[in-house]
Amino acid sequence: MGSRIAGLSRSWWVLVLYGVIGVLFGLASIAWPGKTAVALAWAFGVMALAEGIISLLALFKKDVAFSKGWLLLYALASLLFGALAVSNPLATAGVLLLFLAAWLLVAGVYRIVVAIRVRKEIEGEWLIALSGVLAIALAVLFVMYPAAGLVTVALWIGIGALIYGVLQIIAGFRLRKWVRAI
Fold it and tell me: What's the CA gap between 138 and 70, in Å, rounded?
């Protein structure tokens, strides 16, 4: 058995632990989707603050490979967003949801246009158009009912985390079983 496989085989429990954390996060997100959305906005704010501080520190290094002007702009934008997100995560979550709605609107229109343009070349183009209509409908719902939109996004994240966690647990125990069989 190679050294990489041997090291991985001794670490099967790490995958299981990742899975347990994923499952717990998923269950918490599903149980408290509103709090999850606010917590995620706050976490994005903390990350932005950290990146802003690191970027400011990088400005004083002589061997920085980035334009100092762009680095300063990025640092200031990160610090501003981070401060807003940490001080008012609920409003930040709402704004992020509006950005998601704007993207869904553009994506929906784009899909409909693509479906119209390829209707003579492919069969089933109506599915592309339907996905565009659904994206637009979701965007409208997010704008009309932002609280429900935040809950929906948090539920999606929770379901994704739950699936991720279960898959990690399965992979960890399969690795453990595989190692014992060798």
Answer: 35
How far apart (Å, rounded) are the C-alpha atoms in residues 18 and 42? 22
- What is the distance of C-alpha 146 from the center of its chain? 18
pTM above 0.70, yes or no: no
| CA separation for the pair 137, 154 (Å, rounded) | 18
Let me know: does 46 contact 97? Beta carbons within 8 Å: no
pLDDT digits (tens, 9 = 90+) for 28-85: 999 999 899 899 899 989 999 999 999 999 888 888 777 889 989 999 999 999 999 9
> CA-CA distance, 23 to 73, in Å (whole number)?
38
DSSP state of 119: T
Residue partners of 104: CB distance under 8 A and separation at least 6? 135, 136, 138, 139, 142
- On whether the CB atoms of residues 53 and 89 are closer than 8 A, the answer is no
CA distance 87 to 167: 36
